[in-house]
Amino acid sequence: MSLPDSVSGRTSLSIVYRLTEELDQAASLEEMFEAAMSAVVEAAAVDRASLLLLDSADRMRFVASRGLSREYRRAADGHSPWPANERNPQPVYVRDVRDNEELAAFREVFAAEGIRALAFLPLTRSGRLLGKFMLYANQPTDWDDEELALARNIARQVAFAVDRTRSEQELRSTLAQIDALAGNVPLGLLFETDDGTVEMANVEFSRIFSLSPPRELAGQACREVLQLAADQFLEPERVTDEVQVRREQRVPAPKYAIHLKDGRIIEQTYVPIDEPGALGHLWTYEDVTERLHLERQLHHVQKMESLGAFAAGIAHDFNNLLQSMLTSASLLRPELKPGGAGDELLSHLIQVAREASEVSSRLVTFGQGQPGTTALIDLDESLSASMGFFERLMGTGIDLQYRCDTPDAHVNADAQIQQVVMNLLGNARDATPDGGSISIRVLRTEDSPTGSGVPQIVVSVRDSGEGMSEAVRARVFEPFFSTKVAGRGTGLGLASSYGIIRRFGGTMTVDSTPGAGSEFRVYLPQCERPLDREQAAAPTPDRAAGTARVLLADDEPDVLRVVALALRARGYEVQEAGGGPEALDWMERADPPFDILVTDATMAHVDGHALARRASARRPRVPVILMSGLPDQTERPPGQAEYLQKPFLPDELIARIESVLRDPL
After folding, report:
1. Would the pTM count as exceeding 0.90?
2. Helix and strand counts by DSSP (H, E) for the chain
């Protein structure tokens, strides 16, 4: 087949020029395909042609056609004379499809369509196959490559345009993905070109520093943008110096903390970009304020757990010493003249030992940070006893006063009430950095902020300090809210104190005026006054002495010796065991068996709980008394067992022994 005489050299140039303009102005691949079809049909002087491109699965798919039925396109879709990975494929010409064995499967399709000759013109770019042009003739045709030079030239133009358009689409898609990632990543991003211009910023960067939208920042001088952000820095010069050093050194930098005036902490990192065509500096910014708050909270919890374990160990050993002291003092009392100076000093010694035990109990409760067992306590008595500690907490320059305006300040609480007061005093001290006055007052009121109608005992902590604004006062009990500078608190003190008071059935309020100090008021429901100590004292044991055999186990030799002396002085038969293994041995070979097991709860190797379980297995009804040196023992005792808190007086132990022997659990 020859090109018609009318297609002169000038006409060929006109077709190529027009196609070039149309391809350049095409807004989509579809418009390009239509322009290409028009050009190739005119250049090859054929009525029918098609354009196919490789899809993502490397199959030839029709994207444009002229003069072909739908049935033909469906049947021929996917066919290609070249493998998809063939380099530099060459045109294929078929003079007569009836003589071509490779196309035998399509003869019926060709016959139905009236096709006798075919020309396959590959679309390639850099030797890579992109697709093909198909030319169709109704009669057998001697295709001549030289005569189809114009069609092949059109194929090259189309291949170039398709490849360029696809690359642009992929680039736009990639840029859209990058924009989407940059817009949603929880990091502020700022890319600065090597000449100091902002190439890209994201929404998070603008949000962190309250700057203009990213599109308005692009193109500005990076120094000017960072200067706008630096107005919010606590130390702007230090930050800008850091940025300048990183620019000059062009080495990745570790995280650098920027402290803002509003209390937030922003971590800055730097990465130099040295890729060809993308020289510059990438800065990232992350708001780590909340994360650091959580880390400090975790560190505080871990520290308190360690302190709690340490305090529990001290309390156990301390209570054992107090136990030995109290028991020895009680055994000494019969040797002294009643009412004499020695008897008075001994009573004082016993009272001091009791108070020392309360101090160790408070230490464990505060250190562990866990609620203890609530009980009826006298707030006046508890706070008065702690005033010496509170005064030391305040240090110099603070005038601390205490007053109780009610004779009956009994509430249901535990040692954490002192933790609450200590927290309020600590905040009051921080609010009076230049010194001032702080007062603690206990009073009774019929009015409750909750409207419960129950009389309330109020603990008021008032300071003469700086006071607070209405906005701060409204948020003062929120977790993590703090007006202190970074590193000076977690914002959890008042929130945890509020939670403790709520657990006791009470509430907290605050009144404050800027420049006129603050007053925090703790409200707790008042409870009925307990019986006098004389009335509540344990009854004198009425069981005849010498009728019970006691197995006494404790791995503290001093405690074991003096408690055994006290029991024998009351006529009990006592077998001493210096630890769990020895007690087990005595339990196995005792005949007759012991009437009761009295054991320390915490011992090495075999503790009191294991002994209690073994005793219950041997004699299901045997009573067990577990002496605990740890305050607020809340673990349920095993079997027929109950706890007795150390330190105790001998009469308290004997009363408990007689009680469980008389009325076993």
Report:
1. no
2. 21, 22
